[in-house]
Design brief:
The strands form five sheets. The protein has an eight-stranded mixed β-barrel with strand order 1-2-3-4-5-6-7-8, surrounded by five helices. It has a five-stranded mixed beta sheet with strand order 16-17-15-20-21, sandwiched between helices. The radius of gyration is 35 Å and the shape is flat. The protein folds into three domains: 248 residues, EAL domain (TIM Barrel); 131 residues, Roll (CBS-domain), CATH 3.10.580; 221 residues, Alpha-Beta Plaits, CATH 3.30.70. By secondary structure, it is an alpha/beta fold. Helix 2 runs antiparallel to helix 3 and helix 16 crosses helix 18. The N terminus and C terminus are likely disordered. The protein contains 26 helices and 21 strands. Pfam families: EAL, GGDEF. This is Phosphodiesterase.
Length: 644
């Protein structure tokens, strides 16, 4: 008789788990950012502890394999309702359902809603979440289900919005009361510009549709503060608490402190990771000359008549089937026609006889960088003849070389206001926007204007390209000392930067930047100049002068919490620029000035004669000059870049 084989443990079926009441509920709090209170809990289900089916993923996979998903969803809801009532939780209960289960609930809702009534819970305290796995075959057929759900007092929510089946189509058609943003978009939103922009787009649509947003998957303070300052209403995630069998009755101290933190978030900027891409259509629009064209069969007399009728027209395009095939320059044509007998000999001949059959053609969608390459190319025909502008290959108008240079320069200057083209740091408009946010929130901060001493002589001696390397090194040093979640770093233009510090140790960070830059900048000099301690050059008056190494100077101004209403963003930037000019005369390279004193000077009142905090007073600065410099630096930097 053969020995008996050991018995194999068989996982219990879903029906048995439900019958034996081996399912248990856990709850994760949902937090209101306005005040930091718990507004509700998401009820989640777990299988028997210590078994493979404890995980909800494994549990529902087993249910799907057995064809018992609907039964498990119903049992999970009943289990969560019973536990929620047992613990006498306040706020709302969020329950997850598939589309089929929601339909079944409304058709046969007595067990769940009866249990609610038995436990003394109103249906208006329940939010039914449509899970992301749910595919709805016919939305029109599902709309009455949602309407019926609302008629009973419950609210309807889209779960994990942005993934799987939770689409914009559902949002528009079902008009949920609550939309829960999937954790993919929330995790590391503080450092991911694209996630930030995606959530901001959701926020705009939520405002339009009247839905309330809940950010899922919040796991750290930085992400929380960005979401809070964006205006997202609620959130949940491990930072507030993991799902627990006994619901948390209060927000943890760390999370409560983060919600009430005095500093405001530094929103992630796309310009920190990628260069700006100015619109080519913007440049094309600025240089487009609306001008009539002539058909291939036109004669030279037709060209002459057109030029005589439109004396400001510099050229005329010849087109066939709306596509340009040639360009006739006014000056060249008129000079040739002025010769004896040319009108009589060539007037009735085809206009292509005096045309440029291979003109420069610029497509309207061409990027600004492509246009800039054209400016630097060996083909300079556009300077004399002008060029043709097309829209998807069809004739749109003409342009001149002068207009091309001006359009590229203006678009680059405009782009530099948003992002510096060299360092990709935020430009003047994001800087002003962040200052306004700081002021509107009455947040205390330090505005520190950064400048490089002796940069112009270095740039003159070593050239623009090496000068650019020094500027990029300065940007890297400043970025390294900043806390990206608290400190905003912008590039005003040229060798001017602005930091809006909220870090408590801001002074140590500023001094570390000066030290790191001053040491590192020496590597950009030739060995002989390093040994000599600098370079020989000329000052602004043309006098021979010896210039030391490029060094960093930082002038700061303190804006106390609640005191921002006294100043505008322009005044703060100007006061910081004034402090920077003083710092250039200090051996330490740093000066902190009094905001009120310096603002008074900028407004035309005499400066109070006492030493500025943090360092001895430097020479009085020309406030108007520094203010103008801060506004024009980006323009000058961009123009220099274009010229190179």
């Amino acid at each position: 008789m053969s020995p008996r084989a050991p018995s194999q443990s068989v996982a219990p079926c879903i029906e048995d788990l439900i019958a034996r009441r081996e399912l248990s509920a856990v709850f994760q709090p949902i937090i209101d950012f306005d005040g930091g209170s718990i507004v509700g809990y998401e009820g989640l289900i777990r299988g028997p502890a210590g078994t493979p089916l404890e995980s909800p993923f494994r549990l529902f996979a087993q249910a799907a394999a057995e064809g018992r998903t609907m039964a498990l969803e119903q049992a999970a809801a009943l289990t969560c309702i019973e536990a929620f009532a047992h613990f006498a939780c306040t706020g709302k209960l969020f329950l997850n359902f598939s589309a089929a289960a929601i339909r079944h609930l409304m058709e046969n809702g007595e067990p769940a809603f009866a249990l609610l009534r038995q436990r003394g819970l109103d249906t208006n305290r329940v939010v039914i979440e449509l899970t992301e796995q749910s595919a709805i075959a016919d939305l029109n057929d599902f709309l009455p289900v949602v309407a019926s759900l609302r008629s009973m007092g419950a609210q309807f929510a889209l779960d994990d919005y942005g993934t799987a089946n939770a689409s914009m189509n559902l949002w528009v058609r079902l008009q949920p009361d609550v939309v829960k943003i999937d954790r993919f978009f929330i995790h590391e939103i503080a450092s991911d510009p694209l996630k930030f922009e995606a959530v901001r787009a959701m926020q705009h649509f939520a405002n339009a549709s009247g839905a309330r947003l809940v950010a899922e998957g919040i796991e750290n303070e930085a992400d929380l503060i960005v979401l809070r300052d964006m205006g997202i209403g609620c959130g949940q995630g491990y930072f507030f608490g993991r799902p627990a069998s006994r619901p948390a009755l209060a927000v943890a101290e760390e999370a409560r402190n983060a919600i009430g933190a005095g500093h405001i978030a530094v929103f992630p900027e796309t310009t920190r990771n990628a260069p700006a891409s100015p619109s080519g259509s913007m440049a094309s629009a600025r240089m487009l000359v609306q001008a009539p064209a002539l058909p291939r069969q036109a004669t030279n007399n037709d060209v002459l008549e057109l030029f005589n009728r439109l004396p400001d027209l510099h050229a005329v395009a010849v087109v066939e089937n709306d596509a340009p095939i040639a360009l006739i320059n006014r000056r060249a044509f008129m000079d040739r026609y002025a010769l004896p007998y040319h009108r009589e000999l060539f007037g009735k001949k085809p206009c292509l006889q005096f045309a440029n059959a291979s003109p420069v053609v610029i497509e309207k969608s061409m990027t600004v960088e492509q246009m800039a390459k054209l400016l630097a190319s060996d083909d300079q025909r556009y300077l004399a003849d002008g060029f043709v502008i097309t829209d998807n290959g069809r004739y749109a108008g003409l342009g001149t070389g002068e207009n091309l240079v001006r359009a590229v320069t203006e678009v680059r200057i405009e782009a530099a206001r948003y992002a510096n083209p060299l360092t990709f740091l935020p430009g003047n408009i994001p800087i002003s926007s962040h200052i306004e946010r700081l002021l509107s929130h009455d947040a205390g901060f330090y505005a520190c204007y950064v400048d490089l001493n002796h940069f112009k002589p270095f740039n003159d001696q070593y050239g623009y390209w090496q000068g650019d390397e020094v500027l990029k090194f300065a940007a890297a040093v400043l970025a390294d000392v900043c806390d990206p979640t608290r400190d905003f770093l912008g590039h005003v233009g040229g060798d001017d930067f602005l930091i809006l510090f909220q870090s408590d140790d801001w002074h140590e960070r500023a001094m570390r930047a000066i030290h790191l830059f001053n040491e590192g900048a020496q590597r950009f000099y030739a060995p002989a100049d390093r040994q000599a301690g600098g370079i020989h050059g000329e000052d602004r008056r043309g006098n021979p002068t010896f210039f030391g190494f490029v060094t960093m100077a930082i002038g700061g101004v303190r804006i106390e919490s609640g005191g921002g209403a006294k100043y505008s963003s322009d005044e703060i930037a100007s006061v910081a620029a004034l402090a920077k000019r003083r710092a250039k005369h200090e051996s330490s390279g740093f000066v902190l000035v009094d905001a009120g004193e310096s603002a008074a000077q900028l407004r035309g009142r005499p400066e109070t004669p006492h030493a500025a905090e943090g360092g001895a007073r430097g020479k009085p600065a020309d406030a108007g000059g520094s203010h103008a410099a801060s506004r024009s630096a980006a323009r000058a930097s961009c123009e220099n870049s274009t010229a190179r």
